[in-house]
């Protein structure tokens, strides 16, 4: 994809610094970039709505700068030493340098947008960062009390996950068209795609094999996800109390995790979550109908199929 190669050059230039340590860390990050799904979403959304422009590349770079900054800060907060199979920034350069590097990325994104007066792009991304922060804090609050319901769960995953994906698709649309209906349809597409993506990810916690996420990792972190929430709602009061005691324990054995997974499946939690995931996926596909038929629109539709069918 020629546009993706051009974006890579644009992104490298956006991260450039004449401070030796910053440049060293930047090169380390660039060598370990993943599949670049976020900039691909920005570029595809722009092409589906019109044409890719310099504003599109700046929007994709802004997404990656702010997202990378949040990941660097998250690794500090979580005391993570690995990121995508490699050492995290804080593992190599310690927390102070990591926080400052994240701040540098944030400032680069803000300045790039302000210098080019990309105020609408900046508003879209700033709102996404706000929502991501609020979603994370709400999840922390609820994990302490174990009182999360489906409505709260959907708000959390909408803010934590779907907000960034929606920001990608909306940014791409904003860079290519002034048609408010198309911009809104792309925002909805990203939101529904993000919800489906997160529910698929949560399903992996209940026994899916050959995936990168170990069985029960959400339960170990006291995260109440949709399969468990629905199962608890369907169970008897005594059974609900027993499962919540296990979830609330500080330590859980493999047998405890299997007990919870068996309970969730028996109470229809997995089936319910899959059905809702597929509903969000269909809503994402329908939101694209307003766009003219094109290879980019088809690629976005295929991306929905990939998200709900992925095994990792």
Low-confidence segments, ≥5 residues, pLDDT <50?
Answer: 209-213
Percent of residues in beta strands: under 5%
Helices and strands, in order, run as: HHHHEEHHHHHHHHHH
The mean pLDDT is 88
Task: Please name the CATH architecture.
Answer: Orthogonal Bundle
Termini separation comes to 24 Å
SS class: mainly alpha
* Count of strand segments: 2
Output the strand order for the largest sheet: 1-2
Overall tally of domains = 1
How can the largest sheet be summarized?
A: 2 strands, antiparallel
CATH superfamily: Farnesyl Diphosphate Synthase
CATH class: Mainly Alpha
Helical content band: over 70%
Our count of helices gives: 14
Q: What's the Cα radius of gyration? A: 20 Å
Q: Under CATH, the topology is which?
A: Farnesyl Diphosphate Synthase
Please characterize this protein's 3D structure:
The chain has a single domain (2-309), classed as Farnesyl Diphosphate Synthase. The chain is 77% helix and 1% strand. It contains 14 helices and two strands, in the order H-H-H-H-E-E-H-H-H-H-H-H-H-H-H-H. Strands 1-2 form a two-stranded antiparallel sheet. It is globular.
Observed structural traits:
312 residues, Farnesyl Diphosphate Synthase
Task: Describe this structure in a few short sentences.
By secondary structure, the protein is mostly helical.
Mind sketching the topology for me?
Elements: H1 2-14, H2 20-31, H3 37-49, H4 54-78, E1 82-83, E2 86-87, H5 89-115, H6 119-145, H7 150-176, H8 180-203, H9 217-220, H10 226-234, H11 237-248, H12 254-266, H13 269-287, H14 295-309
Antiparallel strand pairs: 1-2
Helix pairs in contact: 1-4, 3-4, 3-7, 3-14, 4-5, 4-6, 4-7, 6-7, 7-8, 8-13, 8-14, 10-12, 10-13, 13-14
């Amino acid at each position: 994809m020629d546009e993706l190669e051009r974006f890579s050059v644009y992104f490298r230039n956006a991260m450039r610094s004449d401070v030796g340590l910053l440049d060293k860390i930047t090169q380390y990050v660039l060598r370990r970039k993943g599949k670049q799904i976020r900039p691909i979403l920005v570029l595809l959304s722009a092409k589906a709505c019109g044409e890719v422009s310099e504003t599109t590349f700046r929007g994709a770079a802004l997404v990656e700068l702010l997202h990378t900054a949040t990941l660097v800060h998250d690794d500090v907060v979580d005391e993570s030493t690995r990121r995508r199979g490699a050492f995290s920034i804080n593992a190599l350069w310690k927390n102070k340098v990591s926080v400052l590097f994240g701040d540098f990325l944030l400032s680069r994104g803000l300045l790039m947008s302000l210098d080019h007066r990309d105020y609408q792009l900046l508003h879209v991304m700033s709102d996404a960062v706000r929502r991501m922060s609020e979603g994370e804090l709400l999840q922390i609050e609820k994990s302490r009390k174990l009182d999360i319901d489906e409505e709260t769960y959907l708000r959390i995953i909408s803010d934590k996950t779907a907000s960034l994906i929606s920001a990608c698709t909306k940014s791409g649309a904003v860079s290519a068209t002034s048609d408010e209906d198309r911009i809104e349809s792309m925002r909805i597409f990203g939101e529904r795609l993000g919800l489906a993506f997160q529910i698929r990810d949560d399903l992996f916690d209940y026994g899916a094999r050959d995936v990168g996420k170990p069985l029960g990792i959400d339960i170990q972190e006291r995260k109440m996800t949709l399969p468990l929430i629905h199962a608890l709602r369907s169970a008897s009061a005594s059974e609900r109390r027993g499962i919540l005691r296990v979830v609330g324990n500080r330590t859980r054995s493999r047998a405890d995790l299997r007990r919870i997974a068996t309970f969730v499946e028996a109470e229809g939690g997995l089936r319910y979550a899959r059905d809702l995931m597929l509903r969000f996926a269909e809503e994402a596909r329908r939101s694209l109908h307003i766009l003219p038929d094109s290879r980019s629109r088809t690629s976005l539709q295929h991306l929905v199929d990939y998200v709900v069918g992925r095994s990792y």
